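Incident review: delayed structure delivery

Summary: a single-chain prediction request sat in the queue longer than the usual turnaround. Root cause was a stuck worker, restarted by the on-call engineer. No data loss occurred. The affected request and its eventual output are reproduced below so the record is complete for anyone auditing the incident later.

Affected input:
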Amino acid sequence: MVAPSTRKVAEFIEHTLLKPEATYDEVMTLCEEALAHGFVGVCVNGANVRVVSNRLAGSGVKTVAVVGFPLGAMSARAKAYETKEAVRDGADEVDVVINVGALKDRRASVVLEDLRGVVEAASSRPVKVILETAKLTDEEKVIGCCLAAAAGAAFVKTCTGFGGGKATPDDIALMRRTVGDSLGVKASGGVRTLDDLLALLQAGATRVGTSASVAMVTAGRPREVEDATTTDATATDATGVSCATVAVGPRSAAVVSASAATSPEHLRVSERTCGGDSA
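Output delivered after worker restart:
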């Protein structure tokens, strides 16, 4: 366990505005609030990246762009192009929605092509992979985390907030156990109160995306939080799998024993075999 450190709550928060009807004035207010309260970043749709980046320039507050949002169901080429546009407009970080259907099918090659294209297009800027956890089984969440890591992502993230469900401490704990301290974990979707935020941080989140940010930091409650994350990168979750036991082959992902995880080309799979890529 990492020695706990004390950080201001605001330093975990990405102040978020992703509704399609967001106006210019609302986006500018978002930026002013982030600057006033010291939020780590401002998360917006691609159409607003340039104005946000221009306003936040030199402040240290990050401009975060969503890509493939909110469905994740477009081509890998489209996501890569959208990422390049966001970077050109000044994005410091990119949050991309995973191809949820391909993940549920265990089509690892499709998911990896999708995510690697975004990571490459981001040109060394951190990429967060949105799993849309409410639509996944625990085993699928674990595989999604491992594919995100294999693609070179910097974070895994829970939800879009548009697909039903919300970030939960149980999902954050599962994701944290899966990736250890090798990746960040962002909680997003339905985070409405300071109690919600504190529970997610306690479970292992290192970032929280919310539109209720200002209310949280002005709630008259303590604004500091203990930050402690596990360093055990191979700890298993309730399903008995982790990144150490998920082997990614050229066409599929499968849950295997640790001894077989070193041979992704010819998997010696357990009974927990993930479906292959039939494409």
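Verification: The chain has one domain: 5-228.
Action items: add queue-age alerting; document worker restart procedure.
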